Amino acid sequence: MLVRDRMSAHPVTIEPESSALSALGIMQYHHLRHLPVVDPTGRLVGILAERDLLLAASRHLHAGMEVSEVMSRDVVVVRPETPLAEAALLMANHHFGSLPVTDAEQTIVGIVTESDIFRAFADLDARVKA
């Protein structure tokens, strides 16, 4: 099974110049914990975790904070053709809740989350028991 089989294609994204408050609103509206941060061409430049956003907000109570001030810039990514088991190991070993999926030009094409991995495992287990 490959990442492309389980990823969410066309993920919700945000740009680095967006306000942190806006990012939090987007996360709450879409029930997300991670937002890929992209430049205007769709290239991945970072990832924003809800946990990091909330931590930053508790320390810096001003509303003018931008996504670029909070996002992680060194992002581990996978390709659509990456085996799902390899993505799961990356996530487990690095304590990531998600991995952006990019093409060769670093353009975001999807995101794979812990929930996607759990669903894949549950589906495999159900098939084995059937």
Low-confidence stretches: none
State the CATH topology.
CBS-domain
Number of domains: 1
- CATH superfamily annotation: CBS-domain
Tell me how many strands there are. 5
Named at the architecture level, the CATH assignment is Roll
Can you offer a commentary on this structure?
Helix 2 (20-30) crosses helix 3. The mean pLDDT is 91. This protein has helices spanning 3-6, 20-30, 50-59, 84-94, 114-129; strands at residues 8-9, 34-38, 44-49, 98-102, 108-113. The chain starts with a helix and ends with a helix. The strands form 2 sheets. The chain has a 3-stranded antiparallel sheet. The chain is an alpha+beta fold and 130 residues long. The protein has 5 helices and 5 strands, in the order H-E-H-E-E-H-H-E-E-H. A hairpin with a 5-residue loop joins strand 2 and strand 3. It has one domain (3-129): CBS-domain (Roll), CATH 3.10.580. Helices cover 40% and strands 18% of the residues. It comes from Candidatus Chloroploca asiatica.
